[in-house]
Amino acid sequence: MKLKNVREQIDLIDSKILQLLTSRMEQVVIARKLKKEIFDPKREKQILEKLKDSTNILLRADFLEQIYETMFTESKRNQERGLKLIAFQGEHGAYSEVAAHSWNADLATIACERFSNVFEGVQRGIYDLGIVPVENTLGGVVGEVNDLMIHTDLHIVGAIEIPIEHCLLALESANEKTIRKVYSHSQALTQCRHFINKRDYEPVAYFDTAGSARMLMERGTKSMAAIASRWAGDLYHLNVLQEGIEDFETNRTRFLILSKQKIDTDGQKCSIIFSTENKAGSLYSVLQMFASRKVNLTRIESIPNQFGKYVFFLDFEGSEKDDHVQAILGHLEETTRDFRLIGCYNESKTHSG
Description:
With 353 residues, the protein is an alpha/beta fold.
């Protein structure tokens, strides 16, 4: 064993410690939502008592106690800050987290395993906001998110569209010639198919783009690479061998920001959900209302709700405070089924670089 190998192991352990500290602080700020007081001396005493069973010849009791006292201080500081929490699906470094920071960099991002966890957490008040991808220019709609949208009472309070710029990430010991397998979400692998095939890499599907980067950091070899965001590469201390490896530059994803509370803003875009009678011309009559008032539709999707029945998800430009928009909404409420205005909000776009 060489000194270089030992130091590489120390660097890996340090990275894992940072990830665990981040996870602990996330749980701390979530706990603040569930308790009345910030300072809980009884809880701190219980944790310190447990440490006595964890000491050994390398970990003295006073050393561990000093570390945890520092963590307690920082935990209370974070709880006192009153940070707003925004939840996203995936590992830290996911494109959803990139979008959340682009939308509002002052929010604390909380990783969730599933989209349903995001919706449920916002609904229960554990998270102030949630951010979910709703459509991609290459991959189309995100079906699971659309299904959840038609069954939730949450409101859309914002939207952001960002470019999806995939990077080839690898360990410091690797280069493009040593790589044999490349790991990422199946959609990302598809979006980089030409790049992968040209180099004769073996694509291996993983549950998440950022998750593949984390896996590479924790147990990768120089024959492995991951496709994920630069953010993930920086977070997991991986080398960016190439940027912008997606086959098409038009790869963009639109994200919705969700809240339990409706916001009071003029907005520039509205989203509605409704269903129509199962007869010829029903949907056409709805669309005609927008056309006759020169309101621009930006998205319309049909989502199966039950056997033989569909719910329509429609976005259009305008504010619910505009007289002509109010007239449309009022008419739709009377003539369609299960009508709901799920948000009037502002939408922004970010560009490469």
